[in-house]
Amino acid sequence: MTGMWREHLDRFFNLTASGTTAGREVVAGLTTFAAMVYCVAVNPMIMAEAGMDRASVLTATCLIALFSTTLMGLLANLPLGVAPAMGSNVVFAIILVKQMGVPWQSALALVCLTGVIFMIMSLTRLRERIAHDIPDTLRIGIQVAVGLVIMFIGMRNSGFVVPSPSTFVTMGPITSPKVLMTLAGFILTPVLVARRVPGSLILSIIALTIVGLFLPDGKGSTITRWPAHIFALPQWPHATAFQLQPLYLVQHILYVLPMLFFFLCTELFGTLANLLGVVTATGMVSKSGRIPRAREAFITDAAGSILAPLLGTSIVTVYSESITGVHAGGRTGLTALVIAGGFLASLFLWPLFMIIPPQATAPSLLMVGMMMFQGVRHLDLSDLRESAPAALTFIIALLTGNLINGMAIGTFSYTAMALATGRGRAIPPVVWGLCVIFILFFVVSARMHGHHA
């Protein structure tokens, strides 16, 4: 029976043709799962900022990762883990809901619409056209801006940075156990990552959570509180599932249009970059640069991003942590099925994930933010036409605390630089469209704030 199963697996996933074995695929899947399971702890904490129920988001996170990664394995036969995107969840909770005032139910509807549009794009040639037309300087600027926002959220939630009347923000008191615990994590986590320790982010979260059991929280308890149970039956996400309210989008379409574009870009470039990076490491990219089964991978991503908001979380993406499994020998969709099995097991460990404090996740958010900085190396910093729009995008996004401000001014800067240097004809139509979208956004936003004042 074992031999027959092995033969079926070999035939279905093309294991021998891909130069791998079932045993190697299992090890690879477990390696990738260990590297990306931190999202089960971090995503609910971020989405709770939008007023969503943390326990329900945790279940939704596990369910959508289970569904999307299984689909990636069966449909695309690629060794990739798929889960809610870090960065997009911060934009969802902090920018869209808290700053812009969009109800989270309507924000979920916007994400679902993004998934539908991305599915249409994936089934046509429109995806390649838009990916080609958006300038690298704007894409990199947005990526770095989101990375900075992620880092700031982690530091703020952990109490490492606090408000200051003179400098706006400052470091929390160094004598505070919460600050010391976070600081220890900021030192420990990069060391684990630099040493290439398998599952370094989740190991850091576990270590810090355990330390929190022995540190006072200043309110008569400890930073981490021991759960009543370690294992428990999965809970259906009643508080977040099927709560979409699209009416707000219809009434304020011009106001939310920039965010629709952002999520679309995240889907497009996040998945494309991670897919290309992981598949290149396997040696599976053709000489012409084509990615095998890329269409199936994008369809998987789009399907996940349609289902994710129905359950109660933001868009999904292929995780760059999948590279760890590839290095361990993963080559086929069997690796993805093992990753999915890990998320299935996580559904029964939700009481443990619920006790993880912000001080334990802040260092992982710091590392995720730092990884998003890597795009800067592709900029020619000596050419202001390329570096200025990117720098304006992430500096203004950080200092104003608003991603749209950065995206808009970066786009206006790119357009002005191109016109001033005689390259006006080279400006892609999508950039002109963005300029119009951002102008309309600022007009509508000013009117809305005027009515609220």
UniProtKB/TrEMBL annotation:
The UniProt transmembrane annotation reads: 26-46, 58-82, 102-126, 138-155, 175-193, 200-216, 253-276, 297-320, 332-353, 391-414, 426-446
Q: Output the InterPro entries linked to this UniProt entry.
A: Azg-like, NCS2
> How does this chain sit within the bilayer?
Multi-pass membrane protein
Q: What superkingdom heads the lineage?
A: Bacteria
- A Pfam cross-reference name: Xan_ur_permease
Q: Which UniProt keywords are given for this protein, alphabetically ordered?
A: Membrane, Transmembrane, Transmembrane helix, Transport
Where is the protein localized?
Endomembrane system
Residue ranges of coiled coil:
none
Name the family the entry cites: Belongs to the nucleobase:cation symporter-2 (NCS2) (TC 2.A.40) family. Azg-like subfamily.
Any idea what this protein is called?
Xanthine/uracil transporter
Species annotation: Gluconobacter frateurii NRIC 0228
